[in-house]
Amino acid sequence: MGDGQKRFGLGVVGAGMGAKPHALALQSLAGSIDVRGVYRRNRAELDTFCQTYGFPAAESYEALLADPEVEAILLLTTPNAREELVAAAARAGKHVLMEKPVERTLAAAERIVQTCDEAGVTLGIIFQHRFRRASRYLAEAVAEDRYGRLEAVHLVVPWWRPQAGYYDQPGRGTLEQDGGGVLITQAIHSLDLMLSLCGDVNAVTAMAKTTRFHQMETEDFVSAGLEFSNGAVGAVMATTASFPGGPESLTLNFARASATLTAGNLTVRTMDGETITEGEASQGGGGADPMAFPFEWHAAQIADFVDAVRHSRQPLSNGHTALRVHRLIDAMMASAREGKRVVVF
C-alpha cells in the first residue's frame, strides 16, 4: 500500500474454529487493513477471540453495516447463516468476502451471487489453496501453455476426520447446516483448484457412500470419473475416512510433462528429463486437526480481494468461479444418487 492510501476498513462476522487463520492473516495485514469490529452472537466467545487477536468487538451486525468506515464484510459463519447476511451487506453497499461454500445448495449459492451482482458489490469466496506458491506457479505454466495439451487428471483427497470431536459436533455433516459431506466441506478446495487449472467438467460418473467409520447424514467417501470440456479425462477420490489422513494430491498429465501438486508442493517432470520443484514445507489440514495449515495463503487471498475492490476488478476467487465447483459437486451427487452419467450444467 503506497502513496499514503488509508487502510481498508473490514468488519468480521463469525469467530468459530475456521476464524483462526483469518485472524492471523489479518494481524499480518494490519498495515493495510483496519479490522473495525468482529461480531459473533456468543458474547463470551467473541470477547475471548477479540482479546486473543487484539480486535475490537462489535455490538451487532447492524453496527458493522452502519459504520461508514467498513468497506467490506468478512463472513465466516456456517453456510446455513449466509443468505440474509449477504443480502443485508449488499443493501448497505458493503463488499463481501466469505468462507466456502457459497451456501448449502446450488440454488441458494446462485441467489447470493446474483444479489451481489445486482447490488454492484464485489463477492470473494475463500479458496486459499489457489494462493499457495506452488499453485500459482502451476497456474502460470498452464496459462502459458508451457507443457502442451492437458490429457488426464487425477485428484486424491485422503483425509481423516474422527467421529468423536468432529462429526459428533451438532450440525456437522448435516444437510441442514453444511449442505453435504466430504465434497462440499473438505474436497471443495481441491475441486476448485482443479477447475481453476483444468477448465470446466462436462460430465461425471460418480459413487458416494458413508463408510462404517462414521455415523453421519452425508457422504464421507466419493469416487468419480470426469470428462473435461477440453477433452481431458479425470478421476477423483475424496474421503474423510482415511486414517490418519494424508495430503491431497492433484496430478495433471500434459502432452510434454506431468505435474503433481501434493498439498503445497509441486513436482513437474518433463518428457525431456527435467524435474522442477516448487513449494513450501507445510501441513495441509488433512488429519484430525482441520486447522493444521499456515495462514499465509489466507493473507494472500484477503490482499487480492482488497486489491480487487480498490481497482474495480473481480478477485481471483469470486462468486462466479465458486459456482463452477458447486455445479460440479451437484452433478457428482446426482450421478451417485441416480447411478448414471450426469452432464454438468
Question: Which terms summarize this structure?
Answer:
9-stranded mixed sheet, alpha/beta, Rossmann fold, globular, Dihydrodipicolinate Reductase, domain 2, 2 domains, about 350 residues, 10 helices, about 25% strand
Walk me through what this model shows.
- This protein has 345 residues and is of the alpha/beta class.
- The protein folds into 2 domains: 8-128 and 299-318, NAD(P)-binding Rossmann-like Domain (Rossmann fold); 130-279 and 323-343, Dihydrodipicolinate Reductase, domain 2 (2-Layer Sandwich), CATH 3.30.360.10.
- Helices cover 34% and strands 24% of the residues.
- The protein has 10 helices and 14 strands.
- It has a 9-stranded mixed beta sheet with strand order 13-12-11-10-6-9-8-7-14.
- The radius of gyration is 20 Å and the shape is globular.
- It starts with 7 loop residues before the first strand and ends with a strand.
- The mean pLDDT is 95.
